[in-house]
Amino acid sequence: MSADVNTPVGWEQARELAYQAGLAASAGAERIPLTAGDGRTLAEPLRALTALPAFPTSSIDGWAVRGTGPWRPVGRVLAGGTPPPLTEDGVCVEIATGAMVPDGAAALIRVEESVTGADGRVTGTPRPMPEWRLPGEEAELGEELLPAGAAVDPAVIGVAATCGYETLTVRPEPRAALLVFGDELLTAGPPGAGRVRDSLGPQVPAWLRRYGATITAVSGPVKDTLDAHLDAIRSALDTADLVCTTGGTMHGPVDHLHPALAELGAEYLVNTVGVRPGFPMLLARVPGPDGRPRFLAGLPGNPQSAVIALISLVAPLLAGLAGRPFTSDLPLVEAAVPVPGRGRDTHLALAALDPTGRTAAPVGHVGSAMLRGLANAHGFVVVRPGVKVAAGDLVPFLPLPLLPGERA
């Protein structure tokens, strides 16, 4: 197991390494009810089971007519019915929005643009464009509507339902566990007397869920001994594809994470990343008892640094495990004020967007141990190594995650 803390991996390279590791380990599929699909990932393409629409469908309430008017009504067509064809000129049927247009109909006339005479016959002028949807107008039979790897959201569920699906074939949700390290942590009450309140145990599971994981366990604070670390990690790996730990990523007197990984035969994928805040983070691959690899992400103990580690390593790893596409291309926003660089490291500067979403301004209270700035931010301005951002420059922006299934 190689680990050189003196040569951190570049931030963008670290994200790609994490994604590729997750993608290589992704496997399997499961069929779930359509209504349970929100936030999941398609394991196979979603194809049209029939042409959409499957039959010519009226877009209006009115009359389906044949030949020239005036027209003699011979019936009514409601949504859900199968009408007989119109076989002679000079006849019409009343038709409802969404109803099947009968064979033989030449045009539709809106009810508000028609007149029914004393003799019961209908007159009116059809609009130049046909007012019905043709079969296959939205999709042809067998057409791919969404590729494998697409995220399922309410709109996707609606498309699948329209096609006639009752179930979806999706990737299994990555399972994640959290271990909180640190004897100095309190789990209740205000901080004091040399001890601080644990803020990562309550928040990290929510971030993991937003990145598509299901939570199997949250444990801690784990005692600051090697045996306690080993026991906790082994137990978490029994049920999780990914174990996140908080703290202990350096080599201090009570930092037992690296010795524990050595004991477990883990392989470092990333050991420290050239990003500030967040420098001492890691991602390791751990042999699983069933032959499938598991992963451990070591998050720094400082809260903002831990969130940056989640964004940098855990988010792309989970995207890979879920079989979703991942790109390092980020949207560009305009910097409202200058944003300093961090020398050879990438600087992730907490920032809030203006109401247009086009301009970002750094927020205050952004120390690595602070969370107030994070609570007021929409994401991070990304300042690449060796770059100084001036006001008005276009800069990459990494947004904080949405809820599963939400659209940006």
From TrEMBL:
<dbReference type="InterPro" id="IPR036135">
    <property type="entry name" value="MoeA_linker/N_sf"/>
</dbReference>
<dbReference type="InterPro" id="IPR005111">
    <property type="entry name" value="MoeA_C_domain_IV"/>
</dbReference>
<feature type="domain" description="MoaB/Mog">
    <location>
        <begin position="177"/>
        <end position="320"/>
    </location>
</feature>
<dbReference type="InterPro" id="IPR036688">
    <property type="entry name" value="MoeA_C_domain_IV_sf"/>
</dbReference>
<keyword id="KW-0460">Magnesium</keyword>
<comment type="function">
    <text>Catalyzes the insertion of molybdate into adenylated molybdopterin with the concomitant release of AMP.</text>
</comment>
<dbReference type="InterPro" id="IPR005110">
    <property type="entry name" value="MoeA_linker/N"/>
</dbReference>
<keyword id="KW-0501">Molybdenum cofactor biosynthesis</keyword>
<dbReference type="InterPro" id="IPR038987">
    <property type="entry name" value="MoeA-like"/>
</dbReference>
<dbReference type="InterPro" id="IPR036425">
    <property type="entry name" value="MoaB/Mog-like_dom_sf"/>
</dbReference>
<comment type="pathway">
    <text>Cofactor biosynthesis; molybdopterin biosynthesis.</text>
</comment>
<dbReference type="Pfam" id="PF00994">
    <property type="entry name" value="MoCF_biosynth"/>
</dbReference>
<keyword id="KW-0479">Metal-binding</keyword>
<protein>
    <recommendedName>
        <fullName>Molybdopterin molybdenumtransferase</fullName>
        <ecNumber>2.10.1.1</ecNumber>
    </recommendedName>
</protein>
<dbReference type="Pfam" id="PF03453">
    <property type="entry name" value="MoeA_N"/>
</dbReference>
<keyword id="KW-0808">Transferase</keyword>
<dbReference type="InterPro" id="IPR001453">
    <property type="entry name" value="MoaB/Mog_dom"/>
</dbReference>
<keyword id="KW-0500">Molybdenum</keyword>
<dbReference type="Pfam" id="PF03454">
    <property type="entry name" value="MoeA_C"/>
</dbReference>
<comment type="similarity">
    <text>Belongs to the MoeA family.</text>
</comment>
